[in-house]
Amino acid sequence: MLGVLGGTFDPVHCGHLRTALDVVEALGLPELRLVPLRQAVHRAQPQAPAAMRLAMLRAAVADEPRLVVDDRELRRDAPSYTVLTLESLRAERGPDEPICLLVGADAYAEFLTWHRPDDILRLAHLVVMQRPGATLPDDPALAAFTAPRRTEDRRTLRSAPAGRILFLPVTQLGIAATDLRGRLCAGRSVRWLVPDAVLAILERERPYAPP
Q: If one looks up domain 2-173 in CATH, what number appears?
């Protein structure tokens, strides 16, 4: 079973990494792909150059073999639609291997506005990472979409290649990349909010320093 977590990683921080590791351990994933996007669709464009975001991500997970950086979206000269990435992974991994797409609870609240959401569920399971005790937003359309696909049993993700939705409580560290960029722009430290290897790159390259 393969996990997939996309994002800008602008910059990658301990909140990303702790959450990813929570899911790896909870689901027993042998591999979780971290996929930095090139051209955002539902959010502001990344501020740091793609090559630097990739370098920071690789440095961050260098000592964790279960977290694997995948640069396929950076090599695609097009908007980073999740469904295209899943199609590419499915072509490589075959039709039968379970693939789990990790999404945050806030992102899942907007899932029906994503490009081809039904096809995403045809290609992968969804693992919705949420704060312990959190509930779905009061959206009848999303509730109707979720109900027939929802599972409470993590083992069911291994019994089919795609199509189920699992809500999984994860550690919430309260770290936001927007806040980190603001701190760095103001000349403040982000030590202990990012891995030391990422901090070294940020201090050397200064991608978020004021012009």
A: 3.40.50.620
